[in-house]
Amino acid sequence: MSDKKKHELSRRTILKTGVAAGLVFATPTILTRNAWASEFTNDPGSSKSVVLGFNVPQTGAYSEEGADELRAYKLAVEHLNGGGDGGLMNTMKPMSLKGNGILGKKVEYVTGDTQTKSPAARASAKRMIEKDGALMITGGSSSGVAIAVQGLCNEAKVMFMAGLTHSNDTTGKDKKRYGFRHFFNAYMSGQALAPILEKEFGNSRRAYHLTADYSWGWTQEESIKNATEKLGWSTVAPVRTPLTQTDFSSYITQAINSDADVLVLNHYGKNMNDSLKAAVSFDLRNKIAKTGKQWEVVVPLFSRKMAQGSGDDIKGILGSTNWNWSLPDAATKAFVKSFADKYGFPPSMAAHTCYVQTLLYADACERAGTFNPAGVIPALEGHKFDNMGNGPTEYRAEDHQCFKDVLVVRGNPNPSTQFDLLKVEQVVPRSQVEYEASMFGGELGPI
Amino acid sequence: MEAILIQILNGLDKGAAYALIALGLTLAFGTLGIVNFAHGVLFMLGAFCAVSVNKILTISHKIKDESVTLFDAYKEIPYLEIWWGDTGTMIIDYSVPISIIFTIPTMILIGIAMERGLIRFFYKRTHAEQILVTFGLAIVVQEVIKHFFGANPIPMSAPEIVSGSAPVGALFGLSDSMVYPWWRLIYSLFSVIVIGGVFAFLQYTTYGMVVRAGMADRDTVGLLGINIQRRFTIVFALAAVVAGLAGAMYTPIVGPDYHMGMELLVLSFVVVVVGGMGSLPGAVAAGFLLGILESFASMNEVKQIIPGIDQIIIYLVAVVILLVRPRGLMGRKGVMED
């Protein structure tokens, strides 16, 4: 009996010792895991799903663009979770995604309405971070909104994958460690357009800028002005126009009466539709300027949706764009097919950039093996990828700006269908639009 | 001289839109005492009458574009062109003027429906409540239009024959190169005709006389056994027609979208206040005056002296006029003075 007791005690002792030893050995791991979890916002922990926040304009002037962005996001979520035809997950290289969500967790999403107003966009991003537990915020159709939300996400230490934002400031003076932009910028538009402007209009033109009076307009005006002045052009007048302006007749008549011969419309969306309409109605495109040269119009940033709003007015006008559904590469075809199969029409450039951003974020998480931005950010910084519709692309580490080829487009003079509104004139190589990361100032800040 | 003439013309077509909307607002306020924040929506609905007519006239036969393989894309040929050739093309080309025929009855119906269905319940309520309910109505209507037509502006064109520019410089003995779009001139002229028509109706018809009497003293007219309320309903419908026509004819100037009425509404209220609440001639005069002032304020030479003046000129003038003459330019004594 006593022997038995001794034996039992001995076994119990071993068990106790084993448990104690296990606890001792496990303790650092447990502590590390807890410490890791507490280091980043909205750690999904053992949850079987993760939440992404899609912050797009669902009301207001850019709501159609926002709707297209949202369609792209939903498609990306479907593909990430293994549904649909996989879209760009069939072409993206390199790729760590497996079609089982992100790091094995199902992807869910919440949406917010930016209303294309910075306060509303920040409020909806804040709600998605604080109440919905969003790990990453993405979206937007305006640089003002993108910069505002990027700042908020940076403060909250939540990843921000920008949607349509073209201002140099987004990855320039306002760049943030937690913000990444796939879309091209105004500087790139200027560099891409300059050679073709010289070729078509010569090197002694006089430009008259009408500029939307906010961050994006200012940087685009500056970029186009710098690029064209290098050609030998001069800038007659940069005129700022309020965003709320609808009738541009007063501005156009002053342009006509100036000694300029090229009208540069640094306008986007409805602003561009209205200013171009006024220019056309004053017969500007058929006029001989005071310089004796034919008047020309340039719209540095184009989108298919804008072209739709301008109808015949846009025909023949030069501009630049981030991506177009008519590109012949396999990745573009895969994305267009996937999107059109689901929605019945081709995606816009805003939809493309939003879809790509979602996949890039998910892929970075997979490669980093964590949702922690401390791991995801380095995985995106300097990341090189291809077969996403823009050719070889790099997320430059120094400013989180994607560098890739830029498209110069022209309003199609003879569209065969309602979607065939932009004609790709040139694919300008990345080397032509590249610049020093320090050029636009700003600091990324710490992780 | 050329720059001044051009800015006057710019101001006239801008002012024409302000005047037409302000005229409708004043009619509704003068007869029904309603501060109608949904009036801008009537302007927008008029524009979408023109869009609808254009869409109906361009209903097309779709031919699949076989060169596009990733999705279904179609080349569209309007049935009118298939059936009637050049005549069909011409009818489509004239869709905006043709839309006037459709806009008038549609806006009458909308005006009556709005007044009978909602606004009449708020006659005796405070102006703040009227503003709230009509503003809410405006938002609902906007969203409905956005649902059916989208948020993007819809390109509309003036008929080919007037899509170019008139040589106004030569007309005034100035530079031959000075031109002004025909359609904008037509719009100014059209607004003058509409305004003249409304004034003639009020001034020279028995119906108009009763309405004017009702505007001056509603109770006394009622005591004479005249159903002034029904006449006021018709006047509200007339205000809707004026706003609707202004909107329909405006479509070749600025591509219509669901928000276009709101953009002009606030300015038009300022126009009404400057002109004098309840004063029809005041609303018209102030509309043209402020339109011209706004155009001059947007000249680069002026903005170099006072940056941003183009954005505040209308409000600045309103403040000055209300300080100097609280009733507005032609306001009647006692109206909105409490």
What does this molecule look like?
The complex is a heterodimer of chains A (447) and B (338). Chain A is an alpha/beta fold. Chain A contains 13 helices and 15 strands. In chain A, strands 7-6-8-9-10-14-15 form a seven-stranded mixed beta sheet, sandwiched between helices. In chain A, strands 2-1-3-4-5 form a five-stranded parallel beta sheet, sandwiched between helices. In chain A, helix 5 (186-201) runs parallel beside helix 6 (215-231) and helix 11 crosses helix 12 (373-380). Chain A starts with a helix and ends in a 14-residue tail after the last helix. The model of chain A is unreliable at 1-8 and 24-38 (pLDDT under 50). Chain B is globular and about 70 Å long. With 338 residues, chain B is mainly alpha-helical. The mean pLDDT of chain B is 89. Chain B has one domain (2-52, 100-324). The interface between A and B is large, with 46 and 50 residues.
Question: Which short descriptors sum up this protein?
Answer:
heterodimer; A: 447 residues; alpha/beta; Rossmann fold; 2 domains; 13 helices; B: 338 residues; mainly alpha; two-stranded antiparallel sheet; 15 helices; 4 strands; globular
Order of helices and strands of chain A: HEHEHEHEEHEHEHEHEHEHHHEEEEEH
The domain tally of chain A reads 2
Helix content of chain B: 55-70%
Task: Kindly identify the CATH topology of the largest domain in chain A.
Answer: Rossmann fold
Give a brief rundown of this model:
The complex is a heterodimer of chains A (447) and B (338). Chain A is built from 13 helices and 15 strands.
Topology:
The complex is a heterodimer of chains A (447) and B (338).
Chain A: H1 2-39, E1 49-56, H2 63-80, E2 106-113, H3 118-130, E3 136-139, H4 143-156, E4 159-162, E5 179-181, H5 186-201, E6 206-212, H6 215-231, E7 234-241, H7 249-257, E8 262-266, H8 270-281, E9 296-301, H9 304-310, E10 318-321, H10 330-343, H11 349-368, H12 373-380, E11 384-385, E12 393-395, E13 402-403, E14 406-411, E15 422-428, H13 430-433
Parallel strand pairs in A: 1-2, 1-3, 3-4, 4-5, 6-7, 6-8, 8-9, 9-10
Antiparallel strand pairs in A: 10-14, 11-12, 12-13, 14-15
Helix pairs in contact in A: 2-11, 3-4, 5-6, 8-9, 11-12
Chain B: H1 2-32, H2 39-57, E1 60-64, E2 74-78, H3 79-84, H4 86-93, H5 95-117, H6 127-149, E3 165-166, H7 168-171, E4 180-181, H8 182-204, H9 206-216, H10 218-223, H11 228-250, H12 260-275, H13 280-297, H14 300-305, H15 309-324
Antiparallel strand pairs in B: 1-2, 3-4
